[in-house]
Amino acid sequence: MRDETDEHDAFALFATRLHKKYQPVVQECMDLVRIGNVLFRRPLTEPLHKVIRFIAKIVANSNGAVLTLNENGYGNDAMKVARSMFDGAVTSAYLRLHPDSVEDYLNYDSIRRWRFYEYMVSDSPEYLGRIPKDALEAMKQEYEQVAPGFMRRNNKLWDSWRRGVSLHAMSKEVGLGQFYVPFYGTASGIHHMDASGMRGQMTFDAFDVEVAPSDRYVHEALAMSHNLTWRVLYDFNEEARLGMHAEMEAARKGLMTAWEVVRQ
Fold first, then answer.
1. Is the residue at 78 inside a domain?
2. C-alpha span between 219 and 186 (Å, rounded)
3. Is 242 in contact with 15 (CB distance < 8 Å)?
4. What pairs with residue 74 in β-bridges?
5. Which has fewest Cβ within 10 Å: 84, 184, 193, 220?
6. 35 within 8 A of 247, measured Cβ to Cβ
7. Residues 240-250 pLDDT 10s
8. Residues 73, 89: Cα–Cα separation, whole Å
9. Could you read off the pLDDT of 2-52 as tens digits, one per residue?
10. Cβ neighbour number for residue 35 with a 10 Å cutoff
11. How far separated are the first and last CA of the chain, in Å rounded?
């Protein structure tokens, strides 16, 4: 075990080395922050545009989390964040192709909230008294209003607003399918701590955990985070017609150039 001084030095040295290696990428990520700040201030009226904006802003914010985790050598945890960014990027792109699904996307929240209440009834009844009666009644009414629209032929509700369409299928439809197995599958193993996730975080010389600061997964998490942030901003700009196509194209070229420099 390192003492506190050695540990501080190890993290400081790691951050310095990381900044040097990935400086072009970090600069491009900061440019995406600038573009995002401009896009997010634009007025919107369409529900679809507002939903995609919301998702895009979450993904862009998570890019900062990935940068922070990677800077400190927590690439394995950065993979978990990037995994959620993949969900967001696929969802926003899918809604662009299926704009009629935005209502399902929003309405299914009433299903989720009512199911959460039902779980509380069976598993944590001691907390039920905290729910105001008028709030419970409103939640029940919202559930009863939308539930018939999500009923399957077997009289059971769909498990998601996607109505049986898998995330894998969605990712292929929006052009991100090539990342599903190698990236999303790996990140899911880490997130769920199954045997593959354990193996992926194992030291090379012993049956032990590779702890921070470590290079493990830093490159993969940062590459996906950068790519997915660009994608959600691109989809938001294009769908809402916000007039920053030239800036997004320049950012795409900057992204490719930055990673070419890093790989040299």
1. yes
2. 14
3. no
4. 214
5. 193
6. yes
7. 999 999 999 99
8. 25
9. 566 677 799 999 999 999 999 999 999 999 999 999 999 999 999 999 999
10. 20
11. 34
